[in-house]
């Protein structure tokens, strides 16, 4: 598949496999926006994040409603966009526009579901509106959108596919910073409550999930692909190192983080 076929129908079809597990319901429109928390132990530097104004231009219709917020982010879910890999990184803004257009058009969402997107060159883009340093409620993981952030790798990373190291490093840096705002260890686990029966867990079920998880941890999908899933341990360790956390031996595991925090 070449990039030229991505516009139009192909762009919409590219969303189906990974976006099937998103959830745009169960938000709390009356929730007051929460300001960014002050620096905490084991925080990490904020990486460079390209604002959505760089990819969202006047040619794309639709204005998102006011963002919805949770009190904090205690986990991140990693996705892939299930779109072609052989793109020029200069085309990433255009690809994101296509993804956005497919989600607000064919799927009738109010905004792009992912909080962030990362291209093959390691450039990080702001996705969903609301402020990159704030706990914006996304629409990326069915049943587990509250207190989480969605990071989408632009491309398709099924078994045997090479995952660019620049992309791996950028995802780790972004996760380290975003989880660090709440003092969360990216190698730990967190207890979240499913809000939707279409997720891997019935609504109301408390599930203990990795604080840095693949989409398939919360929804029955192959996303983020076997190749990117295989990179998650490396991403967790890199993110922990960026938070200045100690290393653990092969038989050790950090204490469960925020084990009693439950999603709304």
TrEMBL record:
<dbReference type="GO" id="GO:0009253">
    <property type="term" value="P:peptidoglycan catabolic process"/>
</dbReference>
<feature type="region of interest" description="Disordered">
    <location>
        <begin position="241"/>
        <end position="264"/>
    </location>
</feature>
<dbReference type="GO" id="GO:0008745">
    <property type="term" value="F:N-acetylmuramoyl-L-alanine amidase activity"/>
</dbReference>
<feature type="domain" description="Peptidoglycan recognition protein family">
    <location>
        <begin position="47"/>
        <end position="197"/>
    </location>
</feature>
<dbReference type="InterPro" id="IPR006619">
    <property type="entry name" value="PGRP_domain_met/bac"/>
</dbReference>
<comment type="similarity">
    <text>Belongs to the N-acetylmuramoyl-L-alanine amidase 2 family.</text>
</comment>
<dbReference type="InterPro" id="IPR036505">
    <property type="entry name" value="Amidase/PGRP_sf"/>
</dbReference>
<dbReference type="Pfam" id="PF01510">
    <property type="entry name" value="Amidase_2"/>
</dbReference>
<dbReference type="InterPro" id="IPR015510">
    <property type="entry name" value="PGRP"/>
</dbReference>
<dbReference type="GO" id="GO:0008270">
    <property type="term" value="F:zinc ion binding"/>
</dbReference>
<dbReference type="InterPro" id="IPR002502">
    <property type="entry name" value="Amidase_domain"/>
</dbReference>
<feature type="signal peptide">
    <location>
        <begin position="1"/>
        <end position="20"/>
    </location>
</feature>
<protein>
    <submittedName>
        <fullName>Peptidoglycan recognition protein</fullName>
    </submittedName>
</protein>
<keyword id="KW-0732">Signal</keyword>
<feature type="domain" description="N-acetylmuramoyl-L-alanine amidase">
    <location>
        <begin position="62"/>
        <end position="211"/>
    </location>
</feature>
């Amino acid at each position: 598949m070449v990039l030229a076929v991505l516009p139009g129908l192909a762009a919409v079809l590219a969303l189906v496999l990974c976006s099937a597990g998103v959830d745009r319901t169960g938000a709390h429109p009356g929730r007051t926006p929460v300001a960014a928390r002050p620096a905490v132990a084991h925080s990490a530097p904020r990486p460079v994040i390209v604002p959505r104004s760089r990819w969202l231009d006047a040619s794309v219709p639709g204005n998102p409603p006011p963002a919805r917020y949770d009190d904090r982010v205690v986990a991140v879910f990693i996705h892939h966009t299930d779109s072609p890999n052989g793109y020029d990184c200069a085309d990433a803004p255009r690809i994101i526009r296509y993804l956005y257009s497919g989600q607000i058009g064919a799927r009738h969402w109010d905004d792009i579901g992912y909080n962030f997107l990362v291209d093959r060159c390691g450039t990080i883009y702001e996705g969903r509106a609301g402020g990159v340093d704030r706990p914006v409620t996304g629409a990326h993981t069915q049943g587990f959108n509250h207190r989480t952030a969605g990071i989408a790798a632009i491309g398709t990373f099924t078994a045997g596919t090479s995952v660019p190291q620049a992309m791996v490093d950028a995802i780790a840096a972004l996760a380290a910073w975003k989880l660090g705002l709440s003092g969360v260890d990216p190698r730990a686990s967190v207890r979240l409550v499913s809000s939707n029966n279409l997720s891997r867990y019935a609504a109301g079920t408390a599930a203990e999930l990795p604080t840095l998880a693949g989409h398939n941890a919360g929804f029955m999908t192959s996303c983020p692909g076997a190749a990117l899933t295989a990179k998650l341990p490396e991403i967790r360790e890199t993110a922990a190192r960026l938070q200045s956390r100690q290393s653990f031996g092969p038989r050790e595991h950090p204490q469960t983080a925020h084990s009693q925090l439950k999603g709304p």
